[in-house]
Write a structure and sequence with these properties.
By secondary structure, this protein is mostly helical. It has one domain: Na+/H+ antiporter like fold (Up-down Bundle), CATH 1.20.1530.20. It is 81% helix and 0% strand. Helix 1 packs antiparallel against helix 15, helix 5 packs antiparallel against helix 13 and helix 12 packs antiparallel against helix 13. The longest helix is centred in the N-terminal third of the chain and has 28 residues. The two termini are 14 Å apart.
Length: 305
């Protein structure tokens, strides 16, 4: 399991370094980075979401899947509330980035291989189910956090924009496909899956481009980064452990929920920050430092479980 975690972190950093190199050499420009961010949010990420629901749920797994869905919903609502208190002293823009980083983990990229290494195919299924409320909340509450400053129009217009978000549409389409056991035609599914597979490398290249202007020495010298990392990688998994334990869950499902929340800050937070021009440097720093430190904290959390 530890080797799986280490491999995923190394992969993340290698791809991130490609982004840094491309931006330093001006292969990526400011404009192209923004265009890639829009491509990821509007095309590749929705494709990844749809392809992740390509499961036929057997009767024996339905109850566990329902519980995972409920726990994921409770966990993210809980984190929305807790993050408000954790960031109450922060400036408005910093609060948006940090709250999003605390609420949304990098469960997609690191979660699937991590759960597959521990529980096999059923772990992948549980991770996909966990991702349903995750994606709904990400593209509703998460989008609202970032977009509310960008809209001068009514709340109705903001809500309309969020509900028409490709990520939300993809999530509901995926749910419908899974519940009805409908399968996309093989060529269409492979096309959608291939496009979705672009999401992780594309996202990390974008984050690398954003990090290209950051002084790495400043990241490690900034004591606040360590506090943020402690909250994200240690405190929040412990709080999630307590919540799921209070709900009386079995060790297996409890471990899944905790480990998925013990992964680093979601890369998509950096993408949102880039898109809405809100503290993208802070978002990139948090993504970088939490990804690096997760190499040590995830095995620690696993040993506690």
């Amino acid at each position: 399991m530890d080797k799986t975690i280490i491999n995923q972190v190394i992969i993340l950093f290698l791809i991130m370094l490609v982004g840094i190199f491309c931006r330093k050499k001006n292969i990526l420009t400011e404009e192209s980075t923004t265009s890639l961010s829009n491509l990821m949010l509007n095309i590749t990420l929705p494709a990844l979401i749809i392809s992740s629901f390509n499961y036929t749920v057997s009767k024996e797994l339905e109850f566990n899947c329902l519980r995972i869905f409920i726990y994921a919903t409770i966990i993210h609502i809980f984190l929305i509330i807790i993050s408000k208190f954790l960031c109450f002293k922060e400036a408005p823009d910093s609060s948006i980035v940090l709250r999003s980083s605390y609420i949304f983990s990098n469960a997609g990229f690191m979660g699937y291989p991590l759960m597959a290494g521990i529980y096999g195919k059923v772990g992948v299924l549980y991770t996909a189910i966990f991702g349903i409320p995750y994606n709904i909340i990400l593209f509703t509450f998460g989008s609202f956090l970032f977009s509310k400053k960008s809209f001068k129009s009514s709340k109705k217009d903001v809500l309309k924009t969020i509900l028409l978000n490709p990520g939300i549409i993809a999530t509901f389409l995926g749910i419908m496909l899974m519940l009805t056991n409908l399968k996309l035609p093989e060529p269409l599914f492979k096309a959608v899956s291939s496009i979705g597979d672009m999401t992780t490398p594309l996202a990390m290249i974008i984050v690398g481009g954003m990090l290209s202007t950051v002084n790495f020495k400043d990241i490690f010298k900034d004591k606040k980064m360590y506090l943020i990392s402690f909250i994200k990688l240690i405190l929040i998994p412990i709080l999630v452990y307590l919540v799921v334990t209070i709900l009386g869950e079995t060790k297996e499902l409890r471990t899944i929920c905790v480990l998925l929340e013990a992964t680093p800050a979601a890369v998509v937070v950096s993408i949102f920050a880039k898109r809405y021009n809100i503290k993208e440097d802070l978002a990139a720093k948090v993504s970088f430092i939490t990804t690096l430190l997760s190499l040590f904290t995830i095995p620690l959390i696993m040993s506690i479980l």
